Amino acid sequence: PNGVSPAPTSDVTREQLLNELRLPADARLIGAIGRHWPQKRTTDLIWAADLIRVLHDNMRLLVIGDGPERAQLERFARLASDLEHVRFLGERDDVWRIMPHLDVLWQASAYEGQPNTVMEASAAGIPVVASDIPGHRELVDDAVTGFLVPIAGRAARVRRTNEIFNDDELRHRLGAAGRQKMRESFGVEMMVARYAQLYRELLDGL
């Protein structure tokens, strides 16, 4: 398995970040981080964002990353929602500043290995709502560190996110459990130890 370091502390407060991004002071932040590629199913996230804004008009989906589908996704967002509630931030090298201030991370991929964004969000104490695929099942314990929803399950994603938005205790509990899981099972030191053990086993077999 991959390993993740403890999450760095952001160099901005939530208020400063919201000002920097010109977002409302009461914004609820959802992150969607990754390459703009068909397997990521970002259109599903845009549809889900348009659904949840009916319940939480202060919701903002922050789409972070770049790729060949970006222009197409921006056009889709203009038709399905708007570019106020769905904000494309492009590729950034300062995601570590933004991640700790998210309320939830969305992942909709149809297939993945072990996505670093899920690991980094969990390490930062951010609940994850992810598609129910093998790569996510290894990282997200359903209803413990986040929620797993069907691929293309837009309504299920909205329901689970609404639960997180409406229950601060749930959000903190999921986040704390995710942080603990990353620390105990997916730390960098553990990853290095596993590689060392693998190499020893291979050498012993020569």
Question: Can you tell me about this structure?
Answer:
- The chain is an alpha/beta fold.
- 45% of the residues lie in helices and 14% in strands.
- The protein has helices spanning 14-20, 42-52, 70-80, 95-98, 116-123, 134-137, 154-166, 168-185, 188-204, and strands at 28-33, 59-64, 86-90, 104-107, 128-131, 146-149.
- The protein has a six-stranded parallel β-sheet, with helices on both faces.
- Strand 1 (28-33), helix 2 (42-52) and strand 2 form a beta-alpha-beta unit.
- Helix 2 (42-52) runs parallel beside helix 3.
- The longest helix has 18 residues, at 168-185.
- The protein is globular.
- The two termini are 24 Å apart.
Rounded radius of gyration (Å)? 17 Å
| SSE string, helices as H and strands as E | HEHEHEHEHEHEHHH
Helical content class: 40-55%
- Helix- and strand-based class? alpha/beta
Oligomer category: single chain
Instruction: Classify the beta-strand content into a percent band.
Output: 5-15%
Strand order of the largest sheet: 3-2-1-4-5-6
Ends apart, CA distance between termini: 24 Å
How many distinct beta strands?
6
Low-confidence stretches: none
Please state the average pLDDT score.
Answer: 93
Shape designation: globular
Task: Outline the secondary-structure elements.
Blueprint: H1 14-20, E1 28-33, H2 42-52, E2 59-64, H3 70-80, E3 86-90, H4 95-98, E4 104-107, H5 116-123, E5 128-131, H6 134-137, E6 146-149, H7 154-166, H8 168-185, H9 188-204
Parallel strand pairs: 1-2, 1-4, 2-3, 4-5, 5-6
Helix pairs in contact: 2-3, 2-7, 5-8
